[in-house]
Amino acid sequence: MKIGSNNNLNAVKAQYSTSDHLNIRKSFHDRYSTNRQGYGNWIVSNYEIKDGMEVLELGCGTGNFWLGQEDIVSRCKKLYLTDLSEGMLSTAKENLGERDNIGYLIADIQNIPFEDGCFDIVIANSMLYHVPDLEKALHKVRRVLKENGIFYCATMGENNFVERLAEWFRLSGEEFSPNHNFTMQNGEKILRTVFKVIEPRFYEDSLHITDIEELISYLQSLNSLKTINDLPEEKIRTILMKHSQNGIIDLPKDYGMFICK
Fold first, then answer.
1. Contact by Cβ (8 Å): 251, 165
2. Alpha-carbon distance values, 107 to 12, 54, 64, 103, 121 (Å)
3. Which residues face 165 on adjacent strands?
4. Rounded-to-integer distance, Cα 123 and Cα 81, Å
5. What is the dihedral angle through the alpha carbons of 131, 132, 135, 139, rounded to the nearest 10 degrees?
6. What are the C-alpha distances in Å from 24 to residues 27, 41, 69, 115, 158?
7. CA gap 128, 205 in Å, rounded
8. Rounded to whole angstroms, what are the CA distances from 176 to 91, 166, 261?
9. In CATH, which of 3.30.420.10, 3.20.20.370, 3.40.50.150, 3.40.50.10490 is domain 6-260?
């Protein structure tokens, strides 16, 4: 299933070349998400990592999911953190440090540089929708998994705050092209081309935003809503205020993960 080209891959590399925008988005969600467990903590809570396991994460970003998870990290015989972006990988190394059981590597999910059947667990969170040749990538994941290995992949759904904002700003067609290449709604069908057992799990959450100025800053970090950011900032503020109640805006979040065996 080819969903893009090398141009898409280059665009992703450019978007995630540094952690600045990612940090803005993470801070925003940490502040205004109604589920106080936190999406990252929820994701990690689903992992069945046992002592001595070999674990590979593809598209690790800043490595923030592993912060505060010392007990889980220490169980790994080896945890390999990989990303396409050298900048992201550098930030992950700063966050987690040099450890005997953690390896850092620039790698592409479409060309995983490990031998067949060497991992108990492979993880790919919030990144499969960026992959140009998703079918090839999933076969590569299956190749490096052990026979009874588990693949965890978190993603977003199609009923998210981005879609709601598009309605408010009356975006359509070429103005608004959300990335629905791999979502909680279509992901199971895609995964079944490679994996036999697939369990979807949904994360219940929403956004309760009490500072519209921070929402504007957040929007400015989203490439998918560039058309909104081309508007004068006062116009953006006016439209958002129309959908607020007492200066507060509530937006839906549609996230989850698939567990594949």
1. yes
2. 14, 17, 18, 12, 17
3. none
4. 10
5. -60
6. 5, 18, 22, 36, 22
7. 21
8. 31, 7, 35
9. 3.40.50.150
| DSSP code per residue over 114-179 | S-TT-EEEEEE-S-GGG-SBHHHHHHHHHHHEEEEEEEEEEEE-SSSHHHHHHHHTT--GGG----
Cα gap 57→82, rounded to integer Å: 6
Q: Select from 181, 132, 190, 152 the least CA-distant residue to 57.
A: 152
Report pLDDT digits (tens) over 208-249. 999 999 999 998 888 767 788 888 999 999 999 999 999 999
For residue 225, the 8-state DSSP code is: G
pLDDT digits (tens, 9 = 90+) for 48-94: 999 999 999 999 999 999 999 999 999 999 999 999 999 999 999 99
